[in-house]
Design goal:
With 140 residues, the chain is of the alpha+beta class. It is built from five helices and six strands. A six-stranded mixed beta sheet has the order 1-2-3-4-5-6, with helices on both faces. Strand 1 and strand 2 form a beta hairpin. It is globular and about 35 Å long.
């Protein structure tokens, strides 16, 4: 059985793709994340519940994620520069059924259409299958 999600979060481990690094999302990412979520191009396909978010709401959400045993969220970094470019996460993780939902956005438009999203998907799916033993992942 995979270890608790809280242990993954506390270990502060990085997961490497070819182009990206996934690191646990932290308070240092919140300000930039809010700016991206306010951009109509970035949030076009995102849930309405995460548009027009305040810093207080985002910090409350981040605290919820840190304590959750059913959610894990990563900041996506450009591997070559360590620049923060977006977020991705696994949500509604059901360890018994081995299922979860996946969400992603690349907030920094300079990284659109350059393979960073594809590499992020490959990396987080590897994490889901090999670390968490999740075998069904739905895109949200």
């Amino acid at each position: 059985m995979p270890k608790s999600l809280k242990k993954y979060k506390k270990e502060n481990k990085k997961y490497c793709g070819d182009k990206i690094l996934l690191v646990p999302m932290g308070e240092i990412h919140v300000g930039q994340c809010i700016k991206w979520l306010a951009d109509a191009d970035v949030n076009k396909y995102l849930s309405n519940s995460i548009k027009n978010v305040t810093q207080e709401q985002e910090l409350e959400w981040l605290e919820f994620i840190k304590e959750s045993e059913n959610d894990i969220v990563f900041a996506i970094l450009d591997k070559s520069t360590n620049c923060y470019i977006g977020n991705c996460g696994l949500h509604k993780i059901d360890k018994r059924k081995k299922t979860c939902e996946f969400g992603i956005f690349i907030g920094d438009k300079k990284y659109w259409n350059r393979g960073f999203g594809t590499d992020t998907v490959k990396t987080i799916l590897y994490f889901a299958v090999n670390e968490l033993e999740i075998f069904t992942v739905r895109l949200t």
